[in-house]
């Protein structure tokens, strides 16, 4: 387990972040998946929980004031963005992996012989992995999916124009939603706008499922796709819950 350090460069240190940001008990399947990350990636793993998040918050870069009102899912969406900007390194969802990540770090660390510097590495996104952006631009993203990286496992260099734009757009959205989030905080880990709550009423929670991650990440990475590297870093997507 990697201890927190506010001056850490997790890309240089080849550290992979995993997040479990709510009070929910992790299922047996998730526990087994987490073990594969520790066992198989060959990298240091920083496993962050709701009890340890504060240890990773930089004194000069507090979490957004919306943090306490977010669902566990949206906390993880926000935190991976925060970590990639301030620390860089790897991130993976808690899904089973059999892959060594050292070669992927090596690939991103290689000097760029020509063209723009590469700032991030991920697996090739699937067309059906971008259902949340609609209209002509959404169609363009889906046609361009082979140039984009997926959301579930990636490596970023820290403090780049890419991570800065990602964090800025994420926090700008939270600025817009803050008052509504205070009035209607999440009440369960998968809360989202309009989902039926246990009482049968649609949720007034003001964030759509992909609004804080995919709806920002995919358009941004399309804009900056010349800075991306594609590599088969994806975990298994089978039976992870």
Automatic annotation (TrEMBL):
It comes from the Bacteria. This is Capsular polysaccharide synthesis protein.
């Amino acid at each position: 387990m990697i201890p927190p350090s506010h001056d850490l460069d997790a890309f240089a240190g080849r550290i992979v972040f995993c997040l479990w940001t709510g009070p929910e008990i992790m299922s047996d399947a998730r526990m087994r998946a987490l073990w594969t990350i520790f066992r198989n990636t060959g990298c240091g793993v920083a496993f962050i929980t709701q009890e340890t998040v504060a240890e990773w918050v930089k004194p000069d870069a507090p979490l957004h004031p919306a943090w306490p009102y977010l669902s566990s899912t949206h906390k993880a969406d926000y935190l991976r963005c925060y970590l990639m900007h301030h620390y860089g390194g790897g991130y993976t969802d808690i899904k089973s992996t059999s892959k060594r990540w050292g070669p992927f770090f090596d690939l991103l660390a290689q000097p760029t012989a020509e063209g723009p510097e590469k700032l991030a590495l991920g697996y090739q996104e699937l067309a059906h992995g971008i259902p949340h952006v609609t209209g002509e631009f959404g169609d363009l993203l889906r046609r361009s999916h082979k140039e984009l990286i997926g959301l579930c496992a990636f490596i970023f260099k820290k403090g780049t124009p890419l991570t800065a734009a990602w964090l800025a757009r994420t926090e700008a959205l939270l600025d817009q939603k803050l008052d509504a989030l205070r009035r209607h905080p999440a009440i369960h880990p998968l809360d989202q706008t309009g989902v039926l709550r246990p009482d049968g009423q649609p949720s007034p929670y003001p964030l759509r499922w992909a609004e804080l991650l995919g709806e920002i990440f995919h358009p941004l990475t399309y804009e900056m796709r010349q800075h991306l590297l594609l590599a088969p870093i994806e975990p298994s997507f089978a039976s992870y819950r």
